[in-house]
Amino acid sequence: MKKTVIISAVSVILVAVAVYAWLGGFRAEQINEVTHDRRIVYGTRYEGKYGDLKLRETVVKTQQMIEDNSLQGHLIVVNYDSSATSENIDQFIGILSSDSSAEALQKLSQDTLPSGDYLRIRVYGQPVVWPTPTQVSQYAEKYAQQQQINLGTGAIEHYFGGDSMWIEFPTMN
Fold it and tell me: What does the alpha-carbon distance between residue 168 and residue 35 come to, in Å, rounded to a whole number?
């Protein structure tokens, strides 16, 4: 009886580890410094509670625009306040596209991301194994402190399908 329980427990643990690995849970985040020219994001401003249905609808609508219109670009979420502990958020959810003449983009609001230096954290794997926003902020703060970099306010999330994203923090040096 004990042998069966031990074998079952070990089997469950092995399956859990295998699933976690398959989802990308063992892939480490990568941190590097990047420089950008001024960029234009096309989308919708959202101010409200993090779990609100309107936020979800805005993200889904923006993703659908990328797919339906075959736009060259990816989903961007600009967080004007990088505080991961706030219940209310102020964001711009949109598309970063190199094709600014696309008709679908002209109907949207615009936000300008300033040129300058950014600290980029690349996250891999499925969203279920991604670090939390608080953990990502802590990674950025720790790296910035080690490299003697001053972080600005806000953060920019770049989504590239279901298995990778970047989070960029503006720097002030």
Answer: 11
**Residue 90 token pair:** 């102020």
CATH number assigned to the domain comprising residue 80: 3.20.80.10
Smallest CA-to-CA distance from 74 within 99, 101, 96 is with 96
Whether 22 is in a domain gets the answer no
Under a CB-based contact definition with an 8 Å cutoff, are residues 62 and 159 in contact? Answer: no
Domain count, the chain: 1
> Whole-angstrom Cα distance, residue 13 to residue 58?
38
pLDDT by residue (tens digit) across 103-141?
777 788 999 999 999 999 888 775 555 567 778 888 889
The whole-angstrom separation of Cα 131 and Cα 155 is 15
Residue 4 domain-assigned (yes or no): no
| 3-state secondary structure (DSSP) of residue 85 | coil
Is the pTM of the predicted complex or chain greater than 0.90? no
Pairing of strands 88-97, 109-113: unpaired
Start-to-end CA distance of the chain, whole Å, equals 65
